[in-house]
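Tokens for chain A. Residues wanted.
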């Protein structure tokens, strides 16, 4: 299809969506799928339509100059106004009736526990925020300890000196905020942007650490089927060498190659990939331990091929996991 025809199709999808009275925002992924184009094509050729897609610009601007579409939009708008007015009248009548009932019973309701429930929710929210803050501080301390240890051990001024004492540390991609935000908005584009930022932060920290000296780096491809913590405990509780273990929740081989590019000082660079042939076990693991992860992530790992040693690793280990791992 010609670009003009594709653009007209995208404009029609956007206008039809918002003229229908739908309240949810359109996403680039949804529009691209309905227009039979890729996300990359949308970003390359039709990105100027994104403000209309997200609702930050009014679709009236798209309708100007197209009398047929403008007439159709006016008819839809008039119909939507009538329907909305009818719904508003119905809601207003129900609201007034409910308001009077609540007004008469407000004191009794509050005495029966509403105030306690409200305070309980506030307390729970505060505790969650404090727990998250403490975890962030703990990770920052761990990262500083890595850098401090490597600085002390790299006394030689020669480039990339080997590290003599055993150091076992881990770097994790923190996606909790991205998961929470996605549960509120269901916006996959925003989720993947937040995920990219989190992965970039971990790589930046790893690069800074590797500037201090040569050390083994183990990358754990987190496929959301087994616990990173249990993997570390099982394999590195009794270290025989210094190692930094990185949790990396990336499905695409190209994304993994981009991550390891430039990791000078990672000697050797190993990849560990958890594997399970049983779909019931995978579903049980994800349902129990990864309930906050978007379904799109699971589909990505099912679709993408396994990494290979040709992707740039010194060693590759694909290991079998069981339920409970």
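Reply:
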């Amino acid at each position: 299809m010609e670009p003009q025809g594709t653009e007209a199709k995208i404009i029609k999808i956007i206008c039809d969506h918002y003229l229908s009275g739908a309240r949810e925002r359109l996403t680039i992924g949804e529009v691209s799928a309905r227009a039979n184009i890729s996300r990359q094509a949308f970003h390359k050729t039709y990105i100027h339509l994104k403000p209309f897609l997200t609702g930050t610009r009014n679709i009236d601007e798209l309708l100007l100059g197209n009398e047929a579409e403008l007439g159709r939009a006016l008819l839809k708008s008039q119909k939507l106004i009538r329907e909305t007015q009818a719904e508003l009248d119905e809601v207003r009548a129900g609201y007034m009736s409910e308001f009077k009932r609540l007004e008469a019973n407000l004191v009794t309701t509050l005495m029966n526990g509403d105030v306690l429930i409200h305070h309980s929710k506030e307390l729970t929210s505060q505790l969650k925020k404090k727990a998250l803050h403490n975890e962030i501080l703990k990770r920052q301390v761990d990262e500083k300890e890595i850098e401090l240890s490597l600085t002390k051990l790299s006394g030689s001024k020669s480039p990339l000196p080997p590290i003599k004492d055993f150091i076992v540390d881990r770097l994790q991609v923190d996606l909790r905020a991205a998961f929470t935000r996605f549960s509120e908005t269901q916006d996959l584009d925003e989720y993947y942007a937040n995920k990219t930022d989190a992965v970039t932060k971990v790589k930046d920290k790893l690069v800074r650490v590797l500037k201090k000296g040569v050390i083994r780096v183990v990358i754990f491809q987190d496929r959301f089927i087994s616990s990173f913590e249990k993997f570390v405990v099982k394999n590195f509780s009794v270290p025989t060498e210094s190692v930094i273990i990185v949790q990396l929740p990336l499905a695409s081989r190209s994304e993994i190659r981009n991550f390891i590019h430039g990791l000078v000082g990672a000697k050797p660079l190993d990849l560990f990939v958890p594997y399970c042939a049983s779909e019931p076990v995978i579903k049980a693991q994800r349902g129990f331990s990864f309930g906050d992860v978007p379904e799109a992530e699971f589909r990505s790992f099912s679709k993408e091929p396994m990494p290979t040693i040709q992707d740039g690793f010194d060693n590759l280990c694909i290991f079998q996991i069981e339920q409970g791992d």
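The chain has a mean pLDDT of 82. The first helix runs from residue 3 to 19.
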